[in-house]
Amino acid sequence: MGTSFWHWWQHLPSKMDPVIFAIGPFKLQYYGMMYLVAFGVAYLMVRYRLAREERWEVSVEHVQGLLTAMIVGLILGARLGYVVFYNAGYYMSHPLEIILPFDFSNGMRFTGISGMSYHGGLIGVILAALYYTRRNGLSFLEMADLFIPAIPLGYTFGRLGNFINGELYGRATTARIGMYFPQAGGDAMRHPSQLYEAFFEGIVLFALLWLLRRRVRLSGAMLGIYLIGYGTVRFMIEFARQPDDHLGLVWLGFSMGQLLCAAMITAGIAVLFWLAAADRRKQASPTRSQG
After folding, report:
1. Each residue's pLDDT tens digit in the chain (291 positions)?
2. Ramachandran area for residue 114 (φ above 0: left; ψ -120 to 50: alpha; else beta)
3. Cβ-based burial of 84 (10 A; exposed 0-12, middle 13-18, buried ≥19)
4. Closest Cα partner for 169 from 185, 192, 188, 186?
5. Helix-strand-coil percent breakdown of the chain, rounded to 5?
6. How far apart are CA 270 and CA 128, in angstroms?
7. What is the pTM of this model?
8. Quick check: 246 and 87 in contact, CB under 8 A?
9. Which of 134, 140, 190 is CA-nearest to residue 166?
10. How far apart are CA 86 and CA 110, in angstroms?
11. Number of alpha carbons in the 13 Å side-chain half-sphere of residue 250
12. What is the DSSP letter of 257?
């Protein structure tokens, strides 16, 4: 590829406008639109599975209700996760800023809700799904098997939204694939880690889970596989992603994201062992009763 392509590529972030259009104070941004697209894609993929696969005995209304609960859990969990995992000391001193879109440190300044954590969002989604499935007499593990293969494809659009918004950029690099992100300041190129995540967390992980969706027979196993798969991919990409300025690398050269991903991988392995043990007990129980 020629020099002109690399010049275009490396300066692409400065040419992108995150605002689609504005009417007075209202602004429609690609960031928010991409997340709506992500939710829509996940919903359509689940509906596709309901129509094409005979395994599922769940109504469309329950799918819609569960997705709504998961979205609420995602938003609340992502915000609270950021507060707890990434900036607990600050928010203990400024508790109103957890839920109000204002900075009160020097008067009152509108900032929007700033700071969301994927891992907090994941916890929120799981808790919301547990609540909804129990309340409506559904199997949490069956619903996990239904939804999880469809979810990663939505990440592709979410991470593209991060890229267009110029946030979550990577560490400095001299490699040609690097880009100049105006929001980062300085003259260094940085890894487009948002695009790495869009591809590996989104497309690659989606392809893997989609291929496994009919091959894995152990109920609930998709949850464990997802936790291990996403945690591993994200752990590796974190080596190219810029850590939060106020945290840096928190332990043995690892970022907070990597520590949370390590916990995620461990949880995934534990889920698979627990499910396998429960399945063995279930398979053995008829034999014991006949004895």
Report:
1. 678 999 999 999 999 988 888 787 777 788 788 888 999 999 999 999 999 998 898 999 999 999 999 999 999 999 999 999 998 888 888 787 788 766 666 666 655 566 889 999 999 999 999 999 999 999 999 999 999 999 999 999 999 999 998 989 999 999 999 999 999 988 999 999 999 999 999 999 999 999 999 899 899 999 999 999 999 999 999 999 999 888 899 999 999 999 999 999 999 999 999 999 998 888 887 655 444
2. beta
3. middle
4. 192
5. 65, 5, 25
6. 21
7. 0.90
8. yes
9. 190
10. 21
11. 15
12. H
Q: How many CA atoms lie within 13 A of 74 on its CB side?
A: 11
Find the helix or strand (DSSP H, E) in which 6 lies: helix 3-10
Element (H, E) at 23: strand 19-23
Of 101, 94, 86, which is closest to residue 244 (Cα–Cα)?
Answer: 86
Q: Are 212 and 267 in contact (CB under 8 A)?
A: no
Q: How far is Cα 113 from Cα 125, in angstroms, rounded to an integer?
A: 19
Q: Which of 125, 124, 110, 87 is nearest to 246 (CA)?
A: 87
Number of Cα atoms under 13 Å in the Cβ half of residue 142: 13
- Residue 290: the pLDDT is 47
Q: How far apart are the first and last CA of the chain?
A: 72
- The answer to whether 164 touches 31, Cβ cutoff 8 Å, is yes
Q: Letter for the amino acid at 80?
A: L
Question: What is the bridge-based pairing of β-strands 26-29 and 19-23?
Answer: antiparallel
Cα dihedral sign, 158-160-165-167:
positive
